[in-house]
Amino acid sequence: SALNFFRILYIYTRLVRGCVFTVVSAFMSSNSLQELLAEVKAYPDGTDLLITALYTAVDHFRRGSICTPFPSEVFPPVTTTGNKDFPAVKRALDALPPVHVLLSDEALAKLPPQALDLLKWLLLNPARQRRFARMSLEDLIRQLRERGGDLAWLHQALSGQKAPSYILQAQTTNAQASFTRSAIAYHGTRMENLHSIIHTGLRSMSGTRLQRNGANFGSGIYLSTRYDTALSFCEPYATWHRSRFGTKQRALLVCEVDMEKCKHVEEAGSGDAQIPETYLLVSSSDGVRLLYVLLYCDARHPPRSLRINPCTVIIVLYIVFLLGKALIEMLKRPRYY
C-alpha cells in the first residue's frame, strides 16, 4: 500500500512538473514572439537588409568562407560530414515571406520552427545585434555635414545613376568612444560580403584566399575619400527574391575612419607606386566604423511599347493574300467522286 502511494505521488509530481514546464515554455515562447515582432516593426528595412545579406552569403559559391557568423546554434553540422548545413539554412530563408507580411503575431507563429529560430538568431542575439533604420538623402547630407565629410560627391549622386536607391543608417546599441582624429571614407564591396561585414566589421583580407582585389600599397583595409572611386568596386549580384529593395543589388559602405590607425605608405611593392591621395589604408578593423549602407538596385525597365514596322505589316498582309488566293483556287477545283 505504501509502495503504491509513493508510485502515485511520483507520477503526480512528474505530471505537475510537466505542466509547469509547458506553461513556462509557452510563456517564454510568447514573450520571445512579442520581442521579435517588436524588433521587426521597429526596423523593417533593417530586418530586410539582414535577411538579404545572409541569403546572398548562403547562396554564393564561396559560402564556406564568407558566411561568418554561421547560425550553428540553429543548424548544427551535418552528422555524416561535419560540414555546415547550408541547404537547411537556405530552406529556412526560402520559407520566410516578405518583411511586410511578418508584421503580425499570426504570421510569425505560422513560420516553420527553423525559419522562426533563424529569424530570432538574426535579430535578437544581444551579443551580435545589428540594427539599421532607413533614412532620407537629406538626413544623410545633414549628418555628414555635421561630421565634416566631403559632400562634393552628393551633386553627382543627385544628378544621375550614381544616386543610391536606399540609405540605411547603422544604429549602435553601445556607446563608442569617438576617434581623436577621424575622416569619412567609402568602401565598395560585393553583396555576398555584406553579412560578414555587418556582424564582424571590415577586416583586412590582404594576402588571404578571401582577397578579391589587389593590394598594391600594402596589406590593410582599403577605403577611399572619393565616392565614385569606391562605387567602382561595387558589383550587382542577385539577392533574396522577396527583398523590398529588389532582387539585384549593390552596396556601398559609408564609414568613419580613425586617422591614427591609417598607414602612411610612401612606397610599396615594386617600382615607384605611391598610395593615391584619395585612398585610405587602415591597419586594423577597430579603426573603421560602419555608419551607413547605401543600396543601389537595378531599375526595372519599363515595358516596351509596341512598335509597328510598316514593312513587316506589308509582308504579313502579302503572305495572307497569297494564302487566301491559294485556298480559293483549291476550292474552285472540281471534285470527282
TrEMBL record:
Keywords: Glycosyltransferase, Membrane, NAD, Nucleotidyltransferase, Transferase, Transmembrane, Transmembrane helix. Coiled coil: none annotated. Residues 44-123 form the PARP16 N-terminal domain. Residues 182-270 form the PARP catalytic domain. The chain crosses the membrane at residues 306-328. InterPro entries: ARTD_PARP, PARP16_N, Poly(ADP-ribose)pol_cat_dom. It comes from the Eukaryota. The keyword Membrane applies. This is PARP. The lineage of its organism: Eukaryota, Viridiplantae, Chlorophyta, core chlorophytes, Chlorophyceae.
